[in-house]
Specification:
The chain has 3 helices and 4 strands, in the order ββααββα. By secondary structure, it is of the alpha+beta class. Strands 1-2 form a two-stranded antiparallel sheet. The longest helix is centred in the C-terminal third of the chain and has 25 residues, at about 80-105. The chain is globular, with a radius of gyration of 14 Å.
Length: about 100
């Protein structure tokens, strides 16, 4: 895997014992702005709608979705290993997207 890491799993500052996916500064080199939540980018990297992404991380990665009924619910993990698995998959997919983008330049 490339040295470039765009996503990482960290313990949430406000919910000790819960882990979230955080964006590294290298991510913002390619993504500048959004009108909504940056969390939607995670869904798009997988080629999913945000709702489908939430179901996927719950069912496949064991995430807990908090904020049902809110515009942008949060994704939490009880296990750092599960969060790291998602971060690794996001990094792999994002690297493919960047590589394809740079080839077109």
């Amino acid at each position: 895997m490339s040295r470039n890491i765009y996503f990482e799993a960290n313990e949430n500052l406000y919910n000790k014992g819960k882990f979230t996916i955080d964006y590294k500064p290298s991510f913002y080199k390619y993504v500048y702005y959004t009108d909504g939540s940056y969390r939607v980018y995670e869904a798009r990297i997988f080629g999913l709608t945000f709702a489908s992404y939430l179901r996927m991380v719950r069912d496949i990665y064991g995430a807990e979705i908090v904020g049902r009924g809110h515009l942008y619910p949060m994704v939490y993990f009880n296990s750092k290993e599960k969060a790291e698995k998602l971060a690794k998959d996001l990094n792999k997919r994002f690297l493919i997207i960047i590589s394809n983008f740079l080839k077109q330049q």
